[in-house]
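So, does this match?
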Amino acid sequence: MTIHPEDARIAEARLKQLHQRIGGIAYGGDYNPEQWPRDVWLEDAKLMQQAGVNLVTLAVFSWSRLETRDNVFDFDWLDDVMDLMHEHGIGVDLATPDAVPPAWLVEQHPDIMPERPDGSIFGFGSRQHFDVSHPVYRAKSLALAEKMGERYANHPALRMWHVGNEYGPVSYGPWAEKAFREWLQKKYASLDELNQAWSTTVWGQIYSDWNQVRVPAQPRTWSNPSRRLDFHRFTSDSMLEHFKAERDILRRHSPDLPIVTNFMRFYKTNDYWGWAAEEDAAALDIYPDPREEDAHIAAALNFDLMRSLRHGQPWMVMEQATGAVSQWSVNVSKAPGKMRLGSYQAISQGADAILFFQWRQAKGGTERYHSAMVNHAGPNTRIFREVCQLGNELKSLSDLTGTRSTAKVAIVFDWDCWWALELGNSPRSDLNYPQEVLRFYRPLFEANITVDFVNANSDLSAYSLVIMPASYLLTDSSAARFENYVSGGGRLVVSYLSGIVDQDNTIRLGGYPGALRNVLGAWSEEMHPLAEADERIKLTTPDGGTSSASYWTEHLHAETAEILASYSSGRLSGLPAATRNSFGLGTAMYLSARVDDGLLTQLLDDELRAAGVQPELNAPGGVQARRRTGTTADGAAASFLMVLNHNDAPSSVDVLDGGTDRLSGRRVSGVVELPANGVLILDENLGRGKV
């Protein structure tokens, strides 16, 4: 969804005011004082000051404490906490607590609970236990938002609003069904149009009355993929509609304050392109698994995605862990220095807020083993010392807020593609769309190339290179947009399983990838997924080089395209596997196979060189470099090069002309040794005579 320039300007003004009022980068996290006796609250406020906390999120899970019975409210305790935060100079991100409908509401209206595809009902005792289409749920949650807006809009501690929490429950119950039908009636002018879009002549599924149209609950076997795709779209839209209703209530009371909700890592249910356009900032909950040596790369992808959702605007880390989490089978704590490093990684990729879940570790409940800024052992711990170190370092970096990163490379990440691709009944039902995107992102990250993400409807004019991993669903207008991009001089890289279906999830005829056949100058007559997990097909390149492919191959024909690699074993031996086509002023590459990592990196390197794209810094493996530029509050030019060592050993890095390290105050240039998990924040303007 396109963000109107005036809306973007107003959102940036709200965020600028937020950072001015809290003194720079937001630092803190979820605070749940209702879990603790009052004598702990004052201790918490003093420890927050010690740690450099300037923003806490309140009331996320507090509906049952704020509305104790139907229309019986108790705000006194929250008043006291708000006052306490203000007295200690700590701002509040106040949440509407509709993620947790209270037990009394569920008892009165048990059909609020979501229904699973098999007809079973969610039980009470967790969270997100609601059907967002239920009229009573909607009315009660909006009424509570109204009361909170009336009561706290002018409170001196209030800095921003936080609507709900991790929107995501999907219901297949009667209220969702009614809303789905109404959504379809708005989308399709008639039942005939719906029948056409859903290909209902297949398996005799033709609808003759709107009342026959239901949610795609669990059928005997497989169900209609076009119907299921529309249900994905509906569920995202219906939750967004509720978010917007709450947002509009709060906006009426607080027109100048930012309003957000929190997104999740690789979250399939909601189309975050549409959601981000309705918020003042993207905000992410991010929990990399410390057991994974390269977890920081998947985290980096999510960071770049958050920055891209609002076209480069700074974003927020709304939740992360100081140490261990509690959702995996083995919950390993972050090694010393990793929390600080991950926080600076997010900042290097555009974040202007570093918040945690949560301030004080719970002693009971489901997440009692989820680490916090103050853990069970109290403040005399390694983690709290690291929390204090980071918080007090961030105080000196206020002029980073509002600066941005610039990218010349974009990768397509599109929720319609994701939904359509993973609906099953395809040649490979085990394909994981985010992992396909990550596979193309990884070599760019390792080369220190700054990457933006776009969707199939984005403006591509700013980019020298655009990459389309498994862009399965493309509308006619999107396909034309990519053609025009290449024709005008852009360079395009397309992988297998792209351009296969149209907006209705209907196959494009005439050879794969139908929507892109013209621009690619090549077409496939048959897909050949490989049956065995360890199966490898040999490849050769025109210069005599060798490589291999796994997982996926295709019977490809090159029409006007040159051949970059061919199959040299298996049933497709002698046929092209990778091609490049000149089209207008640009080129389009097609990878019909999942080529091995070495060849993929080589091909992408060739494209980067041809496109004139340079890394932020040439650095050894495991060292990340990102640059943020803009202007300071007084209008001076700002340029910050952030260099992060993700290795568990020191690394020597040539920072060239360097700058002044904002964390140590030292002038740095040439080859420096960056400690294990070390961070440099180089002010490239300070001391170098730049204007």
Observations:
- The first helix runs from residue 5 to 22.
- The first strand starts at residue 26 and ends at 31.
- The chain has a mean pLDDT of 95.
